[in-house]
Amino acid sequence: MRTHIQGFALLALLIGAIWGAVQLASPALSDALGEDGALQAESSEDTVDLTTDAVPDEPLSFEEITRLQFNLLRAGFFEDLSAVDGYLGVNTRAQMGEAARAWGLSEPSDRELYEHAELIYADQDFLPG
After folding, report:
1. pLDDT tens, residue by residue, 54-63
2. 8 Å CB contact between 59 and 110
3. CA dist., res. 11 & res. 23, Å (int)
4. Are residues 29 and 67 in the same domain?
5. Is residue 42 part of a domain?
6. CA–CA dist 119, 3 (Å, integer)
7. 114, 63, 53, 115: which is closest to 87 by C-alpha?
8. Overall number of domains in the chain
9. Co-location of 68 and 22 in the same domain
10. What pLDDT, on the 0 to 100 scale, is given for residue 42?
11. Domain with 72 in it
12. What is the DSSP letter of 61?
């Protein structure tokens, strides 16, 4: 008899917990569910203009990243040649931001920054020596 009472008490506690969870979730659920109970999709405020002819920049290749890093080294944004590794890591990204500000470029893409650095150092050989 005692186990039946304990079972009933646990069942009542479980039902109370479920009821409380439903009560807590009901405001969020009513926002997500329509009048017929179906989920309502909301459109994003971010819109994409597909009417432009703009083509996204091609990502920089390993060689282009290496050339950009070397040009950043020439410009004094890196301290030594060990920073030239061909990968866009945290340090390279930070120095790219510094270079863009120093060169007066407003939020350039990676490709725009690369091309600007190439123009600056166009008359110099890529590798020292």
Report:
1. 677 899 999 9
2. yes
3. 18
4. no
5. no
6. 85
7. 63
8. 2
9. no
10. 63
11. 62-120
12. P
113 and 70 together in one domain: yes
User: What six digits make up the tokens of 79?
Assistant: 């301290």
- 44 lies in some domain: no
Q: How many C-beta atoms surround the C-beta of residue 77 within 10 A?
A: 20
Nearest to 76 by CA among 121, 108, 119, 107: 121
Amino acid found at 18: I
Query: pTM higher than 0.90, yes or no?
Result: no
Shared domain check, 67 and 110: yes
Q: How confident is the model at residue 129 (pLDDT cuts 50, 70, 90)?
A: very low
Rounded to whole angstroms, the Cα distance separating 22 from 14 reads 12
Residue 53 DSSP code = -
Torsion angle, CA of 112/113/116/118, rounded to 10 degrees? -110
How far apart CA 12 and CA 9 sit, in angstroms, is 5
Say whether pLDDT at 25 is over 90.
no
- Vertex 80 angle, CA 74 and 86, to 5°: 80
CA distances (Å), origin 78, targets 13, 103, 112, 123: 65, 15, 19, 20
The residue ranking higher by pLDDT, 64 or 53, is: 64
